[in-house]
Amino acid sequence: MQEIKTLLEAGKDLGKNFPEKVEIANGSIFLSKKYPLKENPQDKSNIPLFKKFNRDKLREKGWPVNPGTYEIRDPASPVAVVCPAQNAELQAAAISYGAAISGPCITPDRGVELVVTNLISNPNIRWLVIAGKDSGHFAGDVIWSLSRNGIDPKTRKVIGTKCPTNPYLMNIPLESIDRFQKQIKVINIMIDGKENDFEQVKEEMGLVIRCCVQEPENAIEMINRKTGEQFVLFDIGSEEFEAVAIDLSIQKTGTYYEGYDRVGTSIHIDTVASAYPVAISHVVNKGIIGKQESTRMALDTLATQFVIHNVEDGLVPENWRPFGWMKDIETVQDYIEKYRLWVYLFPLSDVKYDEVQKRFVPYIPKQMEYAYGGRLTAYWYEIADEEEKKDVTALVEEYHKKYQINNPTFKEIAEFYEKLSKLQKKSFNQIYNMAKAVKLCVAEGFTGSYRNYMSLQTPPIDIKADPRQAHNPCFALYEIYPRKIKGKWQLDVVLLLRANDSLAFPANANGGIFIQKFLAWYASIDTGLYVHNAGSLEVCDYMFDKDTLEKHQND
Predict the structure, then answer these.
(1) d(CA 482, CA 183)
(2) Which positions ≥6 away from 45 have C-beta within 8 Å?
(3) I need a surface site. Which of 232, 235, 255, 367 has the fewest CB within 10 A?
(4) Residue 46 has pLDDT above 80, yes or no
(5) Euclidean distance between CA atoms 40 and 504, whole angstroms
(6) Alpha-carbon distance values, 427 to 206, 349, 382 (Å)
(7) Helical ranges in 75-193 per DSSP H
(8) Where are the alpha helices (DSSP H) in 187-244?
(9) 320 half-sphere exposure, CB direction, 13 A CA radius
(10) What is the number of alpha carbons within 13 Å of residue 53 lying toward its C-beta?
(11) Rounded distance, CA 259 to CA 265, Å?
């Protein structure tokens, strides 16, 4: 320990102070000064010349290119440090010892992608030291395996990692991984889960960093017995490389995945329209075939989540046809505008195509087990007395007739809710109550509110011992989160469906977004992110060909 302390005090130039051999990491790593770049220490003719990418240019370009939890220092430094398990003290120490950038990497997919893209955007970085403990998802092992083995180009899975969850890099091009492997050598000095002396771990990491920033004439040889690797540590320079900037923001990529697998995939994407084909592709690629209670066969993935960043544009996929007879996008647009309004924000309502008017119009079906709008605006309507049912039905019919052509505004919907509330004795309006709750949260400054949600499940009606007899709503829960971001209020929401047919995804998402917009309007705040979570995201057997069906049945 004292020997390492002395070396760290020596400053950047270790040439005159480095002993013949230093053991660290409990004897598993050896560092030795052997002048491997030339035969004669006094003869500098064999020392490679090296260049540096201009640090001012890197700063002008806003390096690092992607956001994250990290500290930065001098972009001319050749070494970066990742502490997978997020240790602020260790990360700060890495900077003080000379690292250009240091930070955690907790997740094995998105986190690793951010590490790769931020490092290859700085050609000066030639070493990556992985220090401290690995994260619970083995993100450190994913980085190390990526540097050694790369990824499977078909599945995008990192080869050889022991990560059991989601070591899939879905959002960066293969060329960027090739660049990462060529540009950067990864030094794995992670510790196991046993008790370790923190000061020793910190100082041993510091020594490795100091070795990496040495001038070529002071190069240090490193042998890592644990990994079987051998390195010559010095500042290599950046003469072979130019900066590669890969913007992973949703505005640039349109889509990025986290946790890409059959269970637990999160897909960040710009619009509903761009999410629709991704939803089908994901289920076809990752789903498994199963028999449903209706005896229908379907592929499905579980806990698939779409985070929609733009709720104003791209609400209707261009080639989406909810009904086979629809021939043009204008008809689809008319349908979705009526559907998201009447089916989600009004009780007892559905929409149908009127052949005379050549448009979709609202109506009350004669037989309806449940309606989303009913569960949202007249919850427990099923147990209301006949007088209440009659009055509510009459009010809804009045609005259907009044708004056959033009849709009601949010103000007119709020006026409807006021009238409805005067009729409701057993049933109650969840949407209107949540609108008032959001407005109250804003007024009272509840920036971390977490109690606002709407449930569409009515247990005595929906929960059955025999699931074949259960016909409960697919739309199960709607969570509402007003948040203040950088001094400005926005409304983020989460719609959870127990099951979501991919074909119905655009319609369901439009309904969820329309509720979000009404709630935000009522509270006079902006809409934020819309999160669409499908417990079972499915593609039914009638949507894919026999070859696809047979392939999944044989898997």
Answers:
(1) 44
(2) 38
(3) 367
(4) no
(5) 73
(6) 66, 16, 8
(7) 88-96, 110-120, 139-149, 174-183
(8) 198-212
(9) 25
(10) 25
(11) 5
Cβ atoms of residues 310 and 270 within 8 Å: yes
C-beta of residue 420 within 8 angstroms of C-beta of residue 377? yes
Structure tokens at 157: 């899975």
Short-list 110, 119, 116, 118, CA closest to 166? 110
Q: Which of 108-112, 259-263, 288-292, 541-545 has the lowest mean pLDDT?
A: 541-545
Question: Which domains, and CATH codes, for the chain?
Answer: 2-248 (no CATH), 251-554 (3.30.572)
Give, as one character, the DSSP assignment of residue 538.
Answer: E
Task: Specify the higher pLDDT residue, 287 or 431.
Answer: 431
DSSP annotation string for 245-309? ----SHHHHSEEEES-SSB--EEEES-HHHHHHHHHHHHHHH-EEEE-TTS-EEEEEEEEEEEES
Task: Please give the residue that has the higher pLDDT: either 251 or 472.
Answer: 472
Q: Is the per-residue pLDDT at 391 higher than 70?
A: yes
At 28, which amino acid appears?
S
CA distance 315 to 409: 19
Tokens of 530: 């819309």
Average pLDDT of the segment spanning 107-127: 93
Q: How far is CA 211 from CA 14, 80, 243, 256, in A?
A: 8, 13, 24, 37
Beta-carbon neighbour count of residue 356 at 10 Å? 6
Digit-coded pLDDT (tens) for 317-327: 998 999 878 88
Q: What's the pLDDT at 5? A: 77
- Per the rule left: phi > 0, alpha: psi between -120 and 50, beta: everything else, 141 is alpha
State how beta strands 500-501 and 526-540 pair.
parallel
Q: Which two tokens stand for residue 159?
A: 């080869």
Q: Which of 27, 13, 107, 118 is nearest to 65 (CA)?
A: 118
Taking the C-alpha atoms of residue 541 and residue 223, their distance in angstroms, rounded to an integer, is: 56
Q: Which helix (H) or strand (E) holds 322?
A: none
Residue 19 has what pLDDT? Answer: 81
Number of neighbouring beta carbons within 10 Å of residue 174: 12
Q: Taking residues 156-177, report their average pLDDT.
A: 90
